[in-house]
Amino acid sequence: MWSTAGPALISGALLAAATWPVHAASADLVSIQTPRGVQQAFILVTPPQKPVASVILFAGGDGALGLTGASSMQWGAANFLVRTRHMFAARGLMAAVVDTPSDHKDGMNAVFRMSSAHARDIEAVAVHLKKQADVPVWLIGTSMGTFSAAGGAIGAKNVSGLVLTSTITRADPGWKIARSHRDGVALPQILVPVLIVSHSKDGCKFTPAADASKLKDRLTKAGKAEVELLDGGSAAVSDPCEGKSQHGFFGIEARAVDTIARFIKANLQ
Fold first, then answer.
1. Each residue's pLDDT tens digit, 15-66
2. DSSP per residue over 214-247, as a string?
3. According to the CATH classification, is domain 26-266 in 3.40.50.1820?
4. C-alpha–C-alpha distance, residues 199 and 167, integer Å
5. pTM of the full predicted structure?
């Protein structure tokens, strides 16, 4: 059950192929039609050499970035995963920052983020990335985006691993989640390697670092599950549940991205 008592989530070196063109990292706004007939937009950041893996990044909040270009959006520029997208590319990871699908322009709630429809959209993005570079695709979510990433790790094909940052483990009664979703994501169904990253001083009441180890314990069938607790950084200049605080690894972004990139490269399949 959802409560404030415990976690539920709600509930190698870079290899350069001779055929991959050498160029500066590029960013493009891409929109694809998914099998269920909606448009899925995302920013695609391509590294200068063939990526060792691709990552699909899910922002927190309602996820409605309102993308209007490769570097312009209506919301979310301060989100941890949005503002670090080029850092992932610099570490040899092709990065896709996803917006909401066209039938959820006003935002995604937790129920949709955990749905099979959303998982099909995620799979379509993974297929597109595979066409750009035939390398493993990982899902990375932060805060509310962890619903999307974990749900995609269960329901989408072509996913090789999962990273959860500042994971939602405690519910707000005001979210009014349907009874069928009150137990959250079925974490024991996740089979791929999982990294859980938290800031030891995360002040958001929905994502306490103290829940990270308990979250790991629920990943009973994951290929591997590890927890990384980070500390330090800059003083918060946003709400404790927003990006420019410890919740968003403010001031230690490079360290957080390095931690994630190392885990992905060490667990390539």
1. 333 344 445 678 999 999 999 999 999 999 999 999 999 999 999 999 999 9
2. HHHHT-TT-S-EEEEEE---PPP-S-TTSSSSGG
3. yes
4. 10
5. 0.90
